[in-house]
Amino acid sequence: MPQPLPKLQQIPAEIAAVTDYEPFARARMSDQAWAYMAGGAADELTLRDNCAAFQRLRLRNRVLADLRGGDTRVSLFGQTFDHPIFLAPVAFQKLVHPEGELASVLGASALRAGMVVSTQASVDLEEIASQAQTALWFQLYIQSDREFTRALVQRAEAAGYQALVLTVDAPVGGMRNREQRAGFVLPAGIEAVNLRGMRPLQASAAPAAGSLLLGSALLAAAPTWEDLAWLRGLTRLPILLKGVMNDEDARRALAAGVDGLIVSNHGGRTLDGQPATIEVLAEVAAAVEGRLPLLLDGGIRRGSDVLKALALGASAVLVGRPYIFGLATAGASGVAHVLQLLRAELEVAMALTGCRSLAEIGPELLWYPRGWQQDCPSPPGGTNA
């Protein structure tokens, strides 16, 4: 029997855009939780640039277009979604709200948004699936305990998850100085419940001279392209690789038979100094030549950002921090409201650029500032100063 759903909470009247949630969320979160959810790696250059790069990229309006019969539907892996805005996998959501992922899946269901559930969720993957009224994908790390990973995949399949999102850009965690300064530790009662029972990594022999990491058991157990082939043999579910940021890895993934790619720099939480995801999207799109779907996360704060990502080759996008801040502020209502705001802004941006469906969104809608990545396709008239 489904458990009682989380109670809906009131949304502050002052909120008109998703970034308006941030101060409300900050006031409701501990210093440690804020450092974990809002922070990034090292100097947080990539974290900031994910948003700033969208702001540098401009749109070209179109007038007098026939907009009758428009919609925002998108089909991925045999599933049809009302709009191309997904909830990204975010760990330990009970850090910001007592219902955690159960409130998020209620908000996603209300807006018929796809949700990617984290391996490190603070609620059992089966319990989340039991409350879902929308499509769920399961985000997976290949663990050092490969048999535990196998069992986790089987659990996700049995619970009805419809795709696997394999995160490949974090064989080790980033240097998250903001978390270190805040003294972040998980509070009592919050854990990665889906990883209970996993065998701990065995200590290695002495690591390489002068290094605490290289040569360690941690990196010796890190997944490789061979493990991707192993995973492919475990499941018939579509497999997406999350964390691809260049054309070489995109082509290799394509050759390995993956079903989709997510252009992602882990929200600026792993390797600081990477480019923004929107800046490399066109490079990755050119490498795969439309042979598989591309998604993007990192820096989406407006529906117009969604349109920009679709114009550069994405089929859909994922948002992380915005819905987490909505969750912290107003629970399931906040999550649903964040999605509603982004979808409404996307529809307005589509109307003002003359697009009545996602298929009509293309690079000709973009106006490029001087110094934008040269791999981006040029609109008519070339690069704009």
Overview of this protein structure:
47% of the residues are buried. An 8-stranded parallel beta sheet has the order 4-11-10-9-8-7-6-5. A two-stranded antiparallel sheet has the order 1-12. By secondary structure, the protein is α/β, with parallel strands linked by helices. Strand 8, helix 10 and strand 9 form a beta-alpha-beta unit. It contains 13 helices and 12 strands.
Question: What is the fold's blueprint, element by element?
Answer:
Elements: H1 21-28, H2 31-38, H3 45-56, E1 58-59, E2 74-76, E3 79-81, E4 85-87, H4 101-110, E5 115-117, H5 125-131, E6 136-140, H6 146-159, E7 164-167, H7 177-182, H8 217-220, H9 225-232, E8 239-244, H10 247-255, E9 260-263, H11 277-288, E10 294-297, H12 303-311, E11 316-319, H13 321-352, E12 366-367
Parallel strand pairs: 4-11, 5-6, 6-7, 7-8, 8-9, 9-10, 10-11
Antiparallel strand pairs: 1-12, 2-3
Helix pairs in contact: 1-13, 4-5, 4-13, 10-11, 12-13
Organism: Pseudomonas linyingensis
Cofactor: FMN
Domain FMN hydroxy acid dehydrogenase: 10-371
Observed structural traits:
single chain; 385 residues; alpha/beta; TIM Barrel; eight-stranded parallel β-sheet; two-stranded antiparallel ribbon; 13 helices; 11% strand; globular; disordered C terminus
Summarize the structure.
The chain has 385 residues and is of the alpha/beta class. The protein has helices at residues 21-28, 31-38, 45-56, 101-110, 125-131, 146-159, 177-182, 217-220, 225-232, 247-255, 277-288, 303-311, 321-352; strands at residues 58-59, 74-76, 79-81, 85-87, 115-117, 136-140, 164-167, 239-244, 260-263, 294-297, 316-319, 366-367. The strands form 3 sheets. Strands 4-11-10-9-8-7-6-5 form an 8-stranded parallel beta sheet. The protein has a two-stranded antiparallel sheet with strand order 1-12.
